[in-house]
Amino acid sequence: MNSPHKPYIYDRSDREAERLDYQASKLARLLNHDTSYPPGSRVLEAACGVGAQTTILAKNSPGAEFVSIDISPESLVRAQLRVSHDGITNVTICQADVYHVPFGPESFDHIFVCFLLEHLPDPLLSIKTMKEILQPGGTITFIEGDHGSALFYPDSMEAHKVIDCLVQLQREMGGNALIGRELLHLMTDAGFTKVAVSSRIVYADGSSTENIEGVKNIFIAMVEVVRELAIARGLVDNETWEKGIRDLYRTTEQDGTFCYTFFKAVGNKES
Amino acid sequence: MNSPHKPYIYDRSDREAERLDYQASKLARLLNHDTSYPPGSRVLEAACGVGAQTTILAKNSPGAEFVSIDISPESLVRAQLRVSHDGITNVTICQADVYHVPFGPESFDHIFVCFLLEHLPDPLLSIKTMKEILQPGGTITFIEGDHGSALFYPDSMEAHKVIDCLVQLQREMGGNALIGRELLHLMTDAGFTKVAVSSRIVYADGSSTENIEGVKNIFIAMVEVVRELAIARGLVDNETWEKGIRDLYRTTEQDGTFCYTFFKAVGNKES
Predict the structure, then answer these.
(1) Average pLDDT over all residues of chain B
(2) For residues A211 and A205, is the Cβ–Cβ distance under 8 A?
(3) Residue of A151, A184, A189 with shortest CB distance to B181
(4) Which residues of chain B lie closer than 8 angstroms to A207, CB-CB?
(5) CA quadruple A36, A38, A39, A40: dihedral positive or negative?
(6) How far is it, in rounded angstroms, from Cα B173 to Cα B61?
(7) Integer distance in angstroms from the first to the last C-alpha of chain B?
């Protein structure tokens, strides 16, 4: 395999698509309210997946032209359906690998990348590759989570353990579930300038049903996906796993709290 | 000793007062920009310490009358000097224990408490005591940090270890350095209603000198205070401590990142 691309840690089932859809709509305001591109600009959305962010981006910047790429044909079918269903006309969907993009140098005015770097064995290489196809003077935006930011009450050793299973499995597959905190140095290392990073924290407690549902449907559901793999690999025993997941759900009860932090970074390619 | 009050984990030296002063001015906007009380209202500031928050509160609500209490006479001298120096006339400074406040029932329209609960062996008792002196229909505000929220790059086992020393020492003295996440349930358990908690995250990286200075002068300085105690108690060896502190400072260099989250909760006493 020429590309250092590794299999996506999550499955691409209907349930996963639903989860990503839910995730995108809940988080869209928090993560993307300050992303819009001027009319006439050509924007690459790298790793669009099932198009969960695509429609939001396209609606925020109706005058921009988006090219949304992903490596998975199955995901792209869904992305295409979603874009068509929403009547969006400023998005072109293409299959492409972020390590080998089929675009010439300086093809785009801006690049937008959400929840990709965490899955890549060599995120710096990917960022450098994307830099090449960016116009001088253009911007690149990365959004990533960081599972190390999960903070909850009641606290639970087993809950931390099941989250650690996800972190460890992702690391073994070449990814990094703690990459949010690394955006500054990665982008700086890739040669971007005026890199500005902001943290976006989601706080959920029993006083806000909406946020609590997000914790269940986004975060805990994501952890639960690796159950069988984690147990099969001996990272955790069945009993600890069950208690960890139970304890995570416990944090979503009336008197519980749950926090998670995303990081958004925008950098410039010097002109 | 009738009161469950325990010794303050930090010293009350000039250096500590300077650190708290710095902390208050840096964090004031983040933590207190949305705290103001209507003219004519009578507000208790419990555990005002050296008055670091007092002057900010008083300036934000010039028409309110503040009573600011603390158990330490040494701190109160500083608080009084600061209030006088700033020409503030709507603050009365009194020595009092939060467990045995010398005020009658329902004496105050509002109560404000910042960075106190983390030091108390029985925070719930303290919250209930404060509720008694609050008018029905009044609000109570708590602001607390949570050392479990510290997230940084480069990550370091030893850096987490030195933070854990502080958490453990505070716990042994009856406090709780992870109390931020518990505000909802504590206030609900005390019978407050419509409790609204918000998280306030501080993100610092090399692109913002101001925030980085805050990490050094506030967070790392706070950890360093317990060095001798932690080593004397055998919680950590000298070498690990030195590396942990070095690694914390490393996160404040050009390509490092550091995050910390505070929690602010406002609850109502039903009328």
Answers:
(1) 91
(2) yes
(3) A151
(4) 184, 195-197
(5) negative
(6) 35
(7) 35
pTM listed for this prediction: 0.88
Give the DSSP letter of residue B77.
H
| First CA to last CA distance, chain A | 35
**CB within 8 Å of B19: residues ≥ 6 apart:** B217, B218, B221, B222
CA triple A76-A82-A83, angle to 5 deg: 90
Helix (H), strand (E), coil (C) string for A138-158 = EEEEEEEECHHHCEEECCCHH
How many whole angstroms separate alpha carbon A193 and alpha carbon A251?
40
Q: How many CA atoms are closer than 13 Å to the CA of B178, on its beta-carbon side? A: 17
Q: Residue B78 half-sphere exposure, CB side, CA atoms within 13 Å? A: 21
Residue B63, burial from CB neighbour count under 10 angstroms (0-12, 13-18, 19+): exposed
Axis crossing angle, helix A157-172 with helix A238-250, rounded to the nearest 10: 110
Q: In the beta sheet, which residues pair with residue B139?
A: B110, B268
pLDDT band, residue B1 (cuts 50/70/90): very low
The whole-angstrom separation of Cα A134 and Cα A18 is: 32
Element (H, E) at B86: none
Contact B184 A195 (CB under 8 A): no
> CA-CA distance, A196 to B28, in Å (whole number)?
23
- β-strands A257-268, A151-153 pairing: antiparallel
The residue of chain B with its CA nearest to that of A263 is B203
ipTM for the complex?
0.84
